[in-house]
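> tool_call: predict_assembly(chains=two)
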Amino acid sequence: MKMTGAQMVLSCLEAENVDVVFGFPGGSVLTLYDEIYKKGLRHILTRHEQGAVHAADGYARASGKPGVVIATSGPGATNLVTGIATAYMDSIPLILITGQVARPFIGTDAFQEADITGITLPITKHNYLVKDLEELPVIFKEAFTIATTGRQGPVLIDLPKDLQAEIGDFHYPHRVEICGYKPTYEGHPGQITKALALLKKARRPLIYAGGGIISSGAHQELLELSQSGAIPVTTTLTGLGSIPYDYELFLGMPGMHGTYAANHAINESDLLITVGARFDDRVTGKIEHFAPHAEIIHIDIDPAEIGKNIVAHIPIVGDIRMVLKEMLKRFRKGETEEWCRKVKEWKNSHPLRYKQEESGPIKPQFVIEELNRHSGGNAIVTTDVGQHQMWTAQYYRFKKPRTLLSSGGLGTMGFGFPAAIGAQVAFPDRLVICIAGDGSFQMNLQELATAVHYQLPVKVAIINNHYLGMVRQWQEMFYEGRYSHSSLDGSPDFVRLAEAYGAKGYRATAVEEVGPVIKKAFNTPGPVLMDFHVDPEENVLPMVAPNTSIVDMIGGE
Amino acid sequence: MGKRILAILVEDRPGVLTRVSGLFSRRGYNIQNIAVGRTMEPGISRMTVTVDADPLTVEQIVKQLNKQINVLKISDLTDEPSVERELLLVKVKAEPAKRTDIQQMVNTFRGRIVDLSPDSMIIEVTGDDVKLKAFLLMMQEFGIKEIVSTGKVALFRGSKITRESKS
């Protein structure tokens, strides 16, 4: 069939069942946008390209489907960079379509030209500059295949302006053979046998699970392994929700702001079953002191993760769900009763804690607990990065996978609000809460217009402490209280800001106002912003100082 | 630390050299030597990369390279019998009185004189590290004006080959 390059793009998206794209038009994608207009593809216009890429990321994290983004050449494309890096670090499938200047102008420093394939080389799973219209359908098929299989990730396709108007033959391949791309899905049976033998023998086994559980959809198998083996579980930030918060052997998050039980369990474990996690420094602390008594089983789809930060005794490369299923078939339980008793005792004797005085300032942890209570733990929650993110991880009781959307690896401030917009687009009828800091929210607050424009009923909860709170906390703890540029004087009145955009805004400055404000917000249709004025100098505890052992916990006693 | 020689088969696409060399630099691996050239297969190039790294780092390098879509196959030639060669061009000062001495030296190293001018000559030599180093040492006494080398290339000895299939 004959069609233009722009029509081909739309046909490729249709063939991949893409029903919504996030984007921002501009000179080099005008032809493509004209086709979107004619065809009526659902398109969410954000107010900044960074908003579009985070929204697509939120859409992908919430739904499991790849998020699709369109941006123009030059600044449009470079504005995507932070969002692409965010998705890359957390292995989120995205397809990024950027306009490029017309082919004859490439390399001439033309107006709005940027070498976006060069710029995004280290932060994409793969990228393409389409130079020949004939290649376009195969490139799209490859891009979707690469983004959504193996260890998922963002793939960028750069489309020159003149190519979008050129006419050619279109045939979309059902599948493609990519010579240099063969992910391993099935775990090596011999390795699985060895792992099972260790599991049978272990007296103090611990499952350390990460975001890989969620991307492979292995949460049920994970729970089953924990239940049938009586093996306690700790999950990283990106793994939260894969195990229900209330499960008796769930120990919470490990690491820098992890629980006493999780960190001590790692420290005393004799077998660490690492599943879809990557021994990030925020989890391990000083790596030489991490899990000193444990043998390590490491299950991951990406062979390069194995042996990167820590030596694994039993590496198993494969899809986590398939590997766990295989393990469960032949699984034989070890004697772990005494260990479980000990771990539960840690859990009971050292819970996360804070104190909310009735007449004192609002404690941020209390706000999170109230958000949890009023949403029944059933909301999709997005966060920005900093103190509020850690309090959310500690105090919101996630029950299901894909309900916490947070930038774990890159730690991107400004992620939460656009991500919430994307999640709400994926699930129009679910409650989506963006928990943000007053600092982070200001990094992408322009997206209030997007939420209002499409009447996306995202509920934003700003944990407002008038500081870049985590920066201030580190300055207090490690820089003798010299608060260098962490105070946020000059922030707007967030309630009036919301109103200026045509959203609703409510404020709570006293403890007794917190519950009613949340209730009112949840019962108000459309986007609502809640501004919680909290204790400005509250710290996230427990805390492990960087590069020390994770059992040296400040405030963990 | 130890020197490792990796043969990397890559798809001959724009930017593929950047993908490979960029990976080395951003993950902090040090390339000592790199050579790129054709293979028998159209569309497939072969890079020979020499790195100085401990075995765990080399394992990471290989795994990270394997994740590149355009990388088809990586062989480590270090611990297997292999033939390594590098081509070196040396421009030396060559006053008429010294030419016979230089000629003798070049013959000893099985090199060739490929250009001659009134006061200098260009010599071509191929060989492995040890031989080329020794040759340069000998040329120093005549006065080296300029050198250029191709980077090292290597093949397994015997019938073993590096094929373009990802395991």
